[in-house]
């Protein structure tokens, strides 16, 4: 090959090498740019670009790769398979609202706040204003919409409260149901021989040979104020240890701030050794508000004038002991009556009119029909007028 041809081949080879180098550099730049773009997309993805909501999706981060070898490693291979390592960063669990079966979250924003006695009327009314107040040993009436006490008389005095004790028995029963998902209002309750020891007054004649749904017992204790039903409820939730249930009643009272209460039975009848269950009118309103706000099923029963349990020949009528639950007295929806010789005629009442809730308690009346009930009806009407007047005061 002559020198002219050699020169031509050298020139052609040089041009070819230059073309190869230029193409290699261009390809390397393109590949590098594409990798960088994919990495940024993984690392910096915003919530709107992700198909998973930002509140629950884990963040995925691509670790940096070993860049040794560069273009030639990519072009010819490094002998090792490149692996992507993904690091999953867990997201803290999101708190969920508890799901209740019988309980509800209180709707009153002032629920549980202290009562305001600033504008309360104290003591007895004149006979011209509201006749019959002298028959009450103690009492109180509160506008729960504002926490203002409208009237009170010896409202912090500890006194026997008779069957108003059943309000705590039923409240604790609902609490136990909520805490134990294996139980429900439909749970069958085998009647215990222990209930035959209950004084045979204000009862539904429970028989140890029968089994009733728990709801029937709770209805009977609420509507008819059945003493044997209340005792059976306590036996059911304490596996026969009634003292354990009473201990829980007193512990729950302290937890609620009912510092003037001491229970000795689940039904309100006096204990032969320990005497009477004691409480105050203020404590009964505190307990009444808890039932109103948290357990609507209780209010459904306490508003019932007539219901039945059992079927066939054993069908049992439940007449309401609270005679204020009547279409003639609008808005009254509970809560519980009580009577023993020591306590007199007692009543914790609740009324809802035009969105305003008033709750009160009276104790010690010598008569229900001629004393307690007519006084409470007049007291309620006076209370709503007084509450309207107090709306103008701070």
Which structural category do the helix and sheet elements fall into? Answer: alpha+beta
Question: What is the strand content?
Answer: 15-25%
Give the topology string: H per helix, E per strand: HEHEEEEEHEEHHHEHHEEEEEH
Classified by CATH, the class of the domain at 121-390 is Alpha Beta
The CATH H-level superfamily of the domain at 121-390 is: DD-peptidase/beta-lactamase superfamily
Average of pLDDT = 86
Gyration radius, in Å? 38 Å
Q: Order of strands across the biggest sheet?
A: 3-5-4-14-13-12
**Helix proportion of residues, in percent?**
25-40%
Major sheet details: 6 strands, mixed
| Ends apart, CA distance between termini | 117 Å
CATH topology of the domain at 121-390: Beta-lactamase
**How many strands in all?**
14
Unreliable sequence segments: 39-68
Overall shape: it is elongated
The number of helical elements comes to 9
Proper CATH architecture of the domain at 121-390? 3-Layer(aba) Sandwich
Task: Explain what you see.
The chain is α+β, with helices and mostly antiparallel strands. The chain has a domain at 121-390: Beta-lactamase, CATH 3.40.710. The protein is built from nine helices and 14 strands. The chain has helices at residues 3-43, 70-76, 166-179, 214-224, 227-237, 242-256, 281-294, 296-302, 368-390, and strands at residues 59-62, 86-89, 121-122, 138-143, 148-153, 159-160, 188-190, 211-213, 278-279, 306-309, 316-319, 332-340, 344-353, 356-365. The strands form five sheets. A six-stranded mixed β-sheet has the order 3-5-4-14-13-12, sandwiched between helices. A two-stranded antiparallel sheet has the order 1-2. A hairpin with a 3-residue loop joins strand 12 (332-340) and strand 13 (344-353). Helix 3 packs parallel to helix 5 and helix 4 (214-224) packs antiparallel against helix 5. The chain is elongated and about 140 Å long. Mean pLDDT is 86; it is low at 39-68.
């Amino acid at each position: 090959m002559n020198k002219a041809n050699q020169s031509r081949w050298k020139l052609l080879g040089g041009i070819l090498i230059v073309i190869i180098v230029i193409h290699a550099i261009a390809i390397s730049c393109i590949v590098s740019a594409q990798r960088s773009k994919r990495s940024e997309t993984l690392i910096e993805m915003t919530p709107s670009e992700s198909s998973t909501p930002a509140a629950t999706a884990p963040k995925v981060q691509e670790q940096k790769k070993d860049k040794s070898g560069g273009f030639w490693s990519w072009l010819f291979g490094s002998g090792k398979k490149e692996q992507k390592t993904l690091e999953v960063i867990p997201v803290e669990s999101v708190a969920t609202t508890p799901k209740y079966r019988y309980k509800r979250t209180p709707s009153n924003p002032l629920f549980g706040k202290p009562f305001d006695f600033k504008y309360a009327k104290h003591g007895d009314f004149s006979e011209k204003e509201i006749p019959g107040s002298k028959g009450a040993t103690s009492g109180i009436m509160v506008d729960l919409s504002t926490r203002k006490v409208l009237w009170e008389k010896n409202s912090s005095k500890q006194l026997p409260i008779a069957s108003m004790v059943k309000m705590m028995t039923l409240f604790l029963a609902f609490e136990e149901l909520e805490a134990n998902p294996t139980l429900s209002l439909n749970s069958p309750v085998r009647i215990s021989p222990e209930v035959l020891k209950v004084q045979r007054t204000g009862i539904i004649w429970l028989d140890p040979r029968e089994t009733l749904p728990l709801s029937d017992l709770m209805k009977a204790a609420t509507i008819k104020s059945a003493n044997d039903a209340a005792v059976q409820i306590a036996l059911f939730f304490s596996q026969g240890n009634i003292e354990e249930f009473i201990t829980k009643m007193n512990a729950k009272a302290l937890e609620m701030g009912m510092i003037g209460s001491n229970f000795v039975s689940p039904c309100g009848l006096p204990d032969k050794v320990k005497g009477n269950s004691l409480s105050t009118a203020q404590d009964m309103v505190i307990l009444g508000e808890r039932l109103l706000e948290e357990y609507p099923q209780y209010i459904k029963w306490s508003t019932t004038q007539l219901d039945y349990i059992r079927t066939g020949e054993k069908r049992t009528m439940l007449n309401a002991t609270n005679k204020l639950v009547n279409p003639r007295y609008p808005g009254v929806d509970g809560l519980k009556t009580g009577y023993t010789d020591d306590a007199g005629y007692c009543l914790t009442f609740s009324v809802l009119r035009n969105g305003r809730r008033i709750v009160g308690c009276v104790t010690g009346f010598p008569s229900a029909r001629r004393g307690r009930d007519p006084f409470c009806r007049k007291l309620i009407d006076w209370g709503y007028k007084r509450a309207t007047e107090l709306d103008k005061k701070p």
